[in-house]
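sanity check this record:

:::
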Amino acid sequence: MHRLVFGKAAFGIVLAALVGVQKGAAQEYGPPDRGQPGDPMIQQYLAQQAAALESSWLAEVKSREDWEKLRPRWKEQYFYMLGLWPLPEKTPLRARVTGTLSGDGYVVEKLHYQSRPRLYVTANLYRPASIPAGQRLPAVLYVCGHSNQGRDGNKTAYQSHGIWFARHGYVCLILDTLQLGEIGAIHHGTYRENRWWWHSRGYTPAGVECLNGMRGIDYLQSRPEVDPQRIAVTGISGGGAATFWIAAADERAAVAVPVSGMADLQSYVANRVINGHCDCMFLYNTFQWPWTRIAALIAPRPLLFVNSDHDRIFPMDANDRVINRLERVYSLFGASDLVDAVVSIGDHAYRKDIRQAAFRFINTHLKNNPAPVTDSEVDLVEGSGAKRRYPIQPERLRVFPRDEDLPKDELNTTIDRHFVPMADPKITDFQPWKHELQAELRRVSFRALPESVPAAKPADPEGRRLETEPGIIIPLEPCGTPAAKPGRIVLVVRHSEEKSVALDGVVQSAGPQAAIYQCWPRGIGPTRWTRKNPPNYVERSHVLLGQTVDTGRVRDIMATARYLRQRHGDVPLELVGEGPGAVLAAYAALWDPQVTSLTLSHPMLTHMEADAPQFLNVLRVCDIPDVLGMLAPRRLTIEGVSTDAVRRTAEAYRRAGAAEHLVVRP
């Protein structure tokens, strides 16, 4: 079966062609990893989880009234998932024009503003050369894709759009991105830089790009020649994604034209398309949304969804699903005519038909002019590499001409450490403090963890392989022969296949009445999966599903502990771990009050540490010493850390009236 590719005739764009893409067929991004024993298990699990989330599309919505009732809660959740809730204060932009250029029918202003203090946004503003006094013009916020232009900033690669809009009576503001702007920072923190603490901080560069764009609208509305009611947002690739971020967040974006900017969870996760994207393309799906809900927040404002039929990172099967879902939402508003789709023949790039479609759609909805666009191919950036030709030489568009002009007080290069505040929970009364922290952790860090984790099920007759949740099987190994009726159970949480000092100590001191076991949570030891850096497929996919790999590991420990209690009866159960395993054990005990005691050797004491387990948004709530403190009044032995390092833990135990149950051995 062949797919007919076209743009709707309402805008005169008929791109009919027959292409060899079967409608609905999954379009995978490279073959699945098969180099480690846990690869098939975790890949199938991720695919099942993605399908489950996408199947919830419109589950709560039957009418426009339902949608409008849910929208305020969804908007708050959306901002939170971008690291923008509570919404940041609108601080002074401190906008400054550093120079101007004159062209044929247009003027370029080179400027910067601060979206928050010391977070600089470099930009070029294109406007008509002559604007009658008092006239208000429509405006376009253009957000850039991943075109590396070095010190000139990626805004210079998209100058043709600014020129076209200015010549046609618009004011067009083209923004540099955080990573590829004149002040180069980082988009690829988890893709390749091993900044896994981004997950625990709730930091994604998508949030920065969204904020920068919203403040860009503030700047446009401050201009006397801009009509504040007529502003569109558009861009391709990373700019297509940013178009969604900004338009979903800010209703002042009256029109949105994302080009190659969104797929869905089935594509990103099950078909591994996430491997083709950097971190700016994703928020952390804390509240476990079907992905298209992000785009649907734009409804019922005009939206043109543009893609290309051979775009490997925005494949057609996902394109079909996304536009079908969007059309359903717009129909709730009686606004089906305001959402449209264009599919161009080709790969991930602009072409004539895409430019014409985007320009015409914006003209239609900001100027009430649906006439065909016939001059889209004037003053284009053409060629590649050293032979690339520009209407304006990129270095002439620099906001900061020389390196020494770059602001010395910039936070751009360290914004990941400042953008989302870390919590500092102060303890007064123990029980209210613990209840509040646990409730918030459940809401924003452990939504994927059931309120009551079921006991694991034996996957073999000996109970040495346990199914901890559907599709996940981990090994459980007894240390020696457990007593028929043990006086206590000791479960050692392994974090590697290397020799365990903690396990050796437990075996030597446990005594004959202890049933001692060791487990390897998912991805560790016998169930390890392939880890390639980049793109870190498994770890990055989890956050699109509202969890982390370590959330799953906590569930494995809890399910295993409950299985052992079923097997051996209601006897005390101790968790033992070292390093990352110690932290995982602590979180398992936090959610399982039947764990009676813990021995933790050399635990990390902050999620900012490189090898610490990571949980979504946890540092927006508390840190590891607080979690250890919430284990009071249970017996807790911490080895290999100083007393001063766990003073917050000690304070919690003191407030709980259980100071004697905390033992710290440096």
Summary: The CA atoms of residues 155 and 176 lie 5 Å apart.
